[in-house]
Amino acid sequence: MPVVIVCETTPYPPFPFSVTNETLRNVKVISLALKLNALPQDFNPLTHISTEYVLFVPDSTRVSRRVLQLAMVAVSSGKIHAVVISVGNSHLTCQQVQWKYADWTLHYSKDASGKICDAVHGQHALLIRTEVLHKLPQPFGLPFPESLYLQLAVKNIKIQIADGKLGAGHGILKTPGGRQRASRHMRDYRVALYKQLGIKAVFREDGRVQWFGCKRETQRCYPPVQGTPSYILSGRNTPPCCRRNMRRVAGHVLRALLQAGARCWLETTSLLGAVLRGDILPWAEHVEIGIHASDVTRVSWLQRGGADADGYVWERATKGHYYRVAYSATNRVYVLILPFSPRNGTMWPADWVLAHQREFPERHLHPLAQITFAGRQAPAPNDARAFLDLKLGANSVERCDKLGPKLLYP
């Protein structure tokens, strides 16, 4: 059986190969380290595989001929393309995988009903048709086999857990320090993979959510918006970490405005999200809050600006009489505060012009209503649908439900 060892760099110390050993003659070490005199195919391990099937095994695995023959029968039947065999006393967990590209998320769920899986967790060997590997963009990507299973799941290629198990030899990582370093390397590979794929949140089968997106100390996940946000052009919604941070900023701003006695309300796109979902729109680039222009002086942070005690940054727009409150000086996810001035029964934008904003009758604010928004109750115009139809055109709620971001970014 030919053996191919794929490495990022040439192993050191080198393997003690012996030219007199018939078995070791079948072993080939492939280094993926860049060599300027190499050919493109030299960096593709598949060019060194000529067999119909490939068996991936963890370190120190003892292969049983009988178990391997049973796995070969299963994978050669034509109904399945890959078979998993447990190693040692490892308990295998059958997982279903759902990659939601538009939402930047990866969902794992446990499938206890059968042995046909998208991914398998636990120490195991994998027998797979070589032709399947040729259909994948990076079949040897790290962390392995997690990266491989994601690629198979996207192409709807299932994996079967076979009966029987292979033996386990002596463990390779004998010290706690060695195990910690290996675990750290796998974690780094995983973070790099998720960054490459644009995965911001991973929902595990036990209910845990792991976040890999932006934080207060990092920049937000999308560049400054010029017209249409970049994520919409990519066919995606707002990254979930950015939306989570928007909720935090919105809650902080609403508390500050209401505690200061300012008359404020949800504006246009944020009100639309509250009516449709009770939350920020999935594709919103910011939160919009209207305020009586005469109440701006009541809010000290709107007057002086800067970072407050909780790290939120208040600033006045350089062009126009409106305000922004950012999540932090580094992470520029923000809330817009838009002053309106009453004049002859109409609320007019106070010396600023923004897309999708226009004047509206003052009666929409007398009295203000309450609406669920981003996990709390927020003040809103008393007839939200009529208010939105005035701002965005007739039947704006129904059109948004149908068109999504094309309502504002055609």
TrEMBL record:
Domain of life: Eukaryota
Any single GO CC term annotated in Swiss-Prot or TrEMBL for this entry: Golgi apparatus
Gene Ontology biological process terms in this record: protein O-linked glycosylation via mannose
Pfam families named among the record's database cross-references: FKRP_N
Every FKRP stem domain range: 1-204
UniProt-listed InterPro entries: FKRP_N, LicD_transferase
Name of the protein this chain belongs to: FKRP stem domain-containing protein
Organism: Arctia plantaginis (Wood tiger moth)
